[in-house]
Amino acid sequence: MFKKSILTGLAVLLMFIMVFAAAGCGGSKTSDQAKKLKVVTTSTDIEDIVKGVGGDKVEVANIVPPGMCPGHFDVKPQSIQVLSDASLFILHSWDGDKFSDKLIESVGNKNLVKVVTTSDDGKYTFMVPQARIKGIDDVTAALVKVDSKNADTYKANAEKLKNDTNKIAQEQKKRLEDAGASKIKAIVFAYQVGFAKWAGLDIVGTYTPDISPNKTKELVDLGRQKGVTLIIDNLQTENKAIASTLAKEIGAKEIVPSNFPGGLPGTKGWSDSFIKNVDLIIQNK
């Protein structure tokens, strides 16, 4: 009987040891997750770069959906609650009015560091390769600023990301050249001019969201005169009627590329989004 009691006691003790060991393992995993730097971004192109540079050192949350125009995004109190436990907030230089210091301070996170990108010149996204390279430098500097102990990792990841970006850009430029992109005469929405120039298209004219009826007619006449075959709109622009009117009146094809990763169906990161934009040109030349 005594022997049986000892065995029973040992079994119970072993069970307790296993439970506490399991709890300890679980706690370690939670601790590792807690050590990650929480970063919040205002666009998916910044988010994509943060993931590439930060790797497993960061946890990223984005505020503005990729298919929406940032200028028309309605920032509500619940939109910025994600900042309450973040360490770093990275936004475009043209986001300043929408995400004011007063609004950011309202979440009550005194440890939050705000970094504004400088290489977008107040109007660009990081979809075009040369802009993305500058964006990578911006993001890397921001991560190093708040997490210097992982600076070497961030810098190494950044170099790899820039090399990958240049490689993809060269491959896609070759596809465009082989397709005769330089012979494509296009009228381009203002926010896609950078992409159209990079692609080597013959840009005959451009337009903005607030183009007047008279200016629209002038573009139609110019398009007919110059033999425009392609109208390039912008996914994040709400008014698609302008591009449709130009295409119909000129007799040109219309494409709608995205300025942000994940905006078009079947895309998620920068590479597949950028390649999809190139596909749209080649398939509609």
Automatic annotation (TrEMBL):
The UniProt record lists the keyword Heme: no
Superkingdom of source: Bacteria
MF term (GO), any: metal ion binding
Keyword vocabulary terms for this entry: Signal, Transport
Presence of keyword Signal: yes
Signal peptide region: 1-21
GO biological process entries: cell adhesion; metal ion transport
Pfam families, sorted: ZnuA
SUPFAM superfamilies for the chain: Helical backbone' metal receptor (SSF53807)
InterPro entries per the UniProt record, alphabetical: AdhesinB, Bact_metal-bind_prot9, ZnuA-like
Stated family: Belongs to the bacterial solute-binding protein 9 family.
Protein name: Zinc ABC transporter substrate-binding protein
